Amino acid sequence: MSVHVLDAEDYTNGEALPPGKLLVIGSGQTGCQLAEELREGGRDVFLACGRAPWVPRRLGDRDILAWITETSFLESTLADLPSPAARLGANPQLSGGRGGHDLNYRTLQAQGVNLLGHFVGAQDGAAHFALDLAESVAFGDARYADLCGLIRETCVARGTEAPDMSPPSPFAASPAERLELSNFGAVIFTSGFRPDYARWVRFPVAFDDLGFPIQQDGCSMNVPGLNFMGVHFQRKRKSATFLGVGEDAAVLAEIIARST
Questions:
Q1: Domain segments of the chain: what residues?
Q2: What is the model's pLDDT at position 1?
Q3: Which tens digit of pLDDT belongs to each residue from 121-137?
């Protein structure tokens, strides 16, 4: 038996995949979006789920990003995270397709996607999964509740009315712990990427064990004269986005100007 295995970066469309059931491993934005697309294309899809946050596409009559940018969420620093490894966590589940719509474990389940716990390995023609789907769903729900709290705090501070933020509906599932892969056409890994600066910046001491630059305000702490821009959590959560890179660039430019 041979199952076609590919990374998300090599995926083009469902029609290019062999016939049979499909297993998607990884449930961040990419994994959920691929699972939705493949299911809408008529495929029988199984999604190995991990701990990923989710947010609704809209609250009230506004896009969720409009709300997020008004809270302190994007101002979070590395020190605010539970650990440095949290930088590698998944982005919130949602979709920009068709003008933007909700996409999460509940919407996928309603579409007929088979949800599983996180993938733990494969042996003797079978894939194995942890029985932790409920915990992963609860994790995402807790992150949504955290965001709702930030939005309420912001609205109170501004004296404006908070949007309706209804709690998620109850979730129930009986996920399989083992899948025989003999009738699967493909397995798609969507488990994300790690930074690999050291591959093209030849200063190993400039990076931590996770591959991120060891820096402060963009300046390398170990290699004088080496500077960075657009690093995830360089100064804040927004540093690697258009919302934050300009602010960081101004800070770094001032530091460089003072040192010359």
A1: 4-189, 199-259
A2: 54
A3: 999 999 999 999 999 99
Contact at 8 Å (CB) between 260 and 227? no
Q: Long-range pairs for 41-45 at CB < 8 Å and ≥24 separation?
A: 41/14, 41/15, 43/14, 43/17, 44/114, 45/21, 45/112, 45/113, 45/114
Which pLDDT belongs to residue 2? 80
Nearest residue to 166 (alpha-carbon basis) of 180, 151, 145:
145
H or E segment and range at residue 7 = strand 4-7
pLDDT of 243 above 60: yes
Average pLDDT, the chain: 97
Write out the H or E segment, with its range, that includes residue 45.
Answer: strand 45-48
Q: Which residues of 49-64 are buried (b: 16+ CB within 10 A; e: fewer)?
A: bbbbbbbbebbeeebb
How long a stretch of residues is the chain? 260
Q: What is the pTM of this model?
A: 0.93
C-alpha–C-alpha distance, residues 199 and 205, integer Å: 13
